[in-house]
Specification:
The protein has 14 helices and 17 strands. With about 450 residues, it is α/β, with parallel strands linked by helices. The longest helix has 20 residues.
Length: about 450
Amino acid sequence: MSKIYVLDTNVLLQDPYSIFSFEDNEVVIPAVVLEEVDSKKRYMDEIGRNARHVSRLIDELRAAGKLHEKIPLENGGTIRIELNHRAFHELQEIFVEKTNDNRILAVAKNLSTEEQQKEDGKPVILVSKDTLVRVKADAIGLIAEDFLSDRVVEIDHIYTGFLEVFLPVELLGTFYEKGELLLSEVGKYSFYPNQFLIMKDALGGSASAVGMVDKTRLRVKKLAINQEHVWGIHPRNVQQTMAIELLLRKDIPLVTLIGKAGTGKTLLALASGLMQTEDYREFKKLLVARPIVPVGKDLGYLPGEKQEKLRPWMQPIFDNLEFLFNTKKPGELDAILAGMGSIEVEALTYIRGRSLPKQFIIIDEAQNLTKHEVKTILTRVGEGSKIVLMGDPEQIDHPYLDAYNNGLTYVVERFKDQVISGHVKLLKGERSGLARLAADLL
């Protein structure tokens, strides 16, 4: 049966192409939604860009007919702007204030009432990213859904970058002797290039080994990097060993790391970047950047020159650099960085239009990036560069992103089949016992 989907503003601002995601059903956009989109067009961020994109898409649809009537879409469905059904009297006693959310609810409720009076009435479904709007809809007897088409993966299916397999001890012995095994001997799994395998004794013995699937996906081989420490940092668990393998490999220019706070993502990436930039001279510069997305209430404008303004946002990076350089006095790190000249700490605000050749690029807190923003960043990477995207998909401060539709998860899933990329999910917190317990319990 055909359905009617009433879209909330946040759905359009999250994904401008969402209007084409409902197959052969009818899409209804309340007039108040257009007002809200119009109010966001002047923003100079991702929300403003999407608002302008939505406006252009709807304007292009005018060529096919009148917007207040049904306009056919290529997927077989229709779209229309709902100018009527704004009567608020039915919800007046329940929701006193005529807020935009309540006006959208009124449109959906009135449409639903009309359809119920017809013999062949269609189900009316309100689609919103706002949890409370969906709760209100349920309270007044409306069907409400979250918009899920923008999700890269389903819940709990994010690629981890490694696979645990159990093998006969004889095969483990062969792996130790020859340094490789045919994947056909390992088992019938779905293997990806540069995926790690944690191989254990099937009978419960202590024998185990860690290998990596080669680019042909025919063999699993021993790790190529035999590095006891990186810039003084020793791996403390098997996932950190995997991360160092990816960070130091010359044939893997794209590395993604995800993990909870304290798992060592930033520290390992900085140590690997410093070693390859300062010791081995494989890159001309180490560039570290992070999106400017506040946690909690925004501080507003900050005084000083550009570097002074950026310092509070970049302080987590400087904290890790102070640890790596073992600085003890105030201003000592600034003097070291000024003397080296090959380390640049920057905000992602300034990356558009740049070309970044022969650089080791670290993008921290990448879970706060949208799909469009992460595409912009990756298309800046020049010849001979290596880029590391890292973050925790469970700690997102962007209003329209979640663990399954953010830019970091998007890259992990889209590049897991590519031979130029590698990924690992860090599981164990190593910052402190307290930090590890807080990450697990809170």
